[in-house]
Structure formats: C-alpha cells, structure tokens
Task: structure prediction
Amino acid sequence: MALNILVVDDSPFFQKLLAEMINEHPRLQVVGFANNGQEAIEQVKSLKPDLVTMDYEMPLMDGVTAVRLIMEENPLPILMLSSMTFPDAKITIDALQAGAADFITKNFSAISNKSEAITQHLHKTLLAIGENILQSKNALSVSSEQSPPKRNDLSGVSVSGNTSNIDRLGKDSLFESSGKPKIVAIGASTGGPAALISMLKEIPASFLLPIVIVQHMPKNFTLAFSERLNRQCNIEVKQASDGDKLLPGRALLAPGGKQLIINKKDATRVSVIDSDGEVNYKPCIDISFASLSNTYGATTLAIVLTGMGNDGCKGAKLLKAQRATVWTQDKDSCVVYGMPMAVDQARLSNASLTLSNMSTYLSAL
Result:
C-alpha cells in the first residue's frame, strides 16, 4: 500500500516536478496540492494524507505557521523543503521545532533536472518518516488501552537487551560498573533537532559534565541550530570550533561538513577536522564516538537518538569494548527508529529511554 502525500508549494512548476519525482516510487503517491499554508490546512482535513511536503515561503500563510497549526489540529509527518542559506536554515529550525519531522535542502537545479541522487534521497526520507511514524502511532494506539505509566517511570524500559520492570530497575542499572561518566556524547539524525531541544532544555545550568553533540545537518543549519539551542537551554551551547575547550555545562555541536573528534594529545579540547570524501555523514557519529573510545573510554556516556540508518552503531561498539555506557532513545518516541534500533539489536545499549527519562537521569549526574 502506498503512502498518500500532499505537496505544498506556491510554484506550480515545483509542484509538478515534485509530484513526478515522488510518484516514481511504487510505495509513494501524490494525492493533492496546496498553494499556501492555509490551503495546506484545509487539504489535510479533506484529503487526510499520510504525510506532507511543505515549502516555507508562500503567500497568505507561511510554511512554519502551517506546520504549527497542522500539528495542533491534525498531526502527521511533515517534510520541509529548504534552501542552504543561513536565514532559511533558521526558518527550517523553526519548522522542526513546530513539529516538522525532517527537512531536505531544496536544490533548484537538482530538482529541475530530477537528478537520481535527489530523487532517491527524497524517496528514502519520505518512506522513513512516513512508515515509521505510522507504525509508532499504531503501537501507541494499542498501548493507550493499557494503564498509563506514572510520570518519569521506566516501566517497559529495555535494559541491556532485557525488559525490566521499574520495581527491579535502579538508577545504577543504567550505567556500566566502570564508574561515573566524565563526558556525554549525543548522536542524532532525522527528528534529532526536536529531540535535542526537548532533552537539553531540562538540563540545569549547574550540569557538571561537558557534552558533545553530532547532529546530521549541513553547515549553515548546525550554526543556526546551535544558536537556537543556546537561547532555549540553561547550559551553554555553541557550534564547535577547532580547539574549543570541553567545560562543565557546555555543549559543543559538531559543525556541518566537518568531523568533531577528541584526541589523546589534549582530551580537554575538541578538534574540528575536514571530512574524508568517502564518509557518508559529515559530521559522523561513528567518528566522534570512536575518538572518545580512545580518550575518555569507560567514562563516556554515549546517547543515540532518533535517525535513519545505523550511524553510531560502530562507534558504540568501540565504546562498549572500553566499558562505556550507551543509551538509546526508545522506539515509540523516535521519529525514525533506525539508529537506536541498530544499537539495540547489536545489544550495545544499557538502556532504551524516553527523552524525559534521559533528561531526568542526566540532570542527576
């Protein structure tokens, strides 16, 4: 069965091109169009699509406002289309915080030429955010018939590959026995911006550990996102520069197009380096995690959040070999349960937690 998609764009030319690209995949089909945000809200109500592609700059109502209202009234996965400029990156971050599931960069020439690479990326992203969120909704509809858990409890949390009841799960079970963490490393991809905002804004300014964050994003987007996090969080958040010092209560976000590592020469600072052309992700979670396995080792707390693919799994394996602690985001709260699933299935996770529980336990460190 195909996923039904509503295309929202004020350009008939781009509507036609996007529809042709989307419809090339047998499991995707465009069922309608909207020329602005207001029409999008009305079409979502009448057509009931499975997901929406959304432009942001449109007459009558912009895409960010439309996303916010749709997510309040008829929530569903929304994919934003954005250009690579810094101002547009800031708008895209607004949309992600308003509830959009993910974004792809609106490369005008690539879309006009219907390049194979952009078409495949579009298909992959739509299928991931559509199918995974729909599966999560189905799972939640079943679980909603059961008694709701108490706030911040860990009922049903998977610990070291086993399901554990809150009565049998103590806080110490979430950590390896090798000692208290000295650094927190977080990796995220699809759905990561909203997850990171939700989790990090609960961390107090008095937090005693440094944090490094690897979020799959292009260059201008990581800068805009770091500024947004810094405004909304109690801790300091900045896009990492080469030589930045790791400090308590400071989070350093890996810049897009680069790699962030910590090396043995000076484990109190980060190195920001150019990326190998053969590496798929820039920044790459595996690369950052691997560098931590050689420096902080057992005293690393690595967290793998929502995202497509399996970036972070190889790095988590290297960290576990050093007896580090690894947490994953639980399936139901993920936009895409891909990266956490890879770590869970490899039995590398000490605990699969909700974002709320992660914040609670991080704050207690």
Notes: The two ends are 47 Å apart (CA to CA).
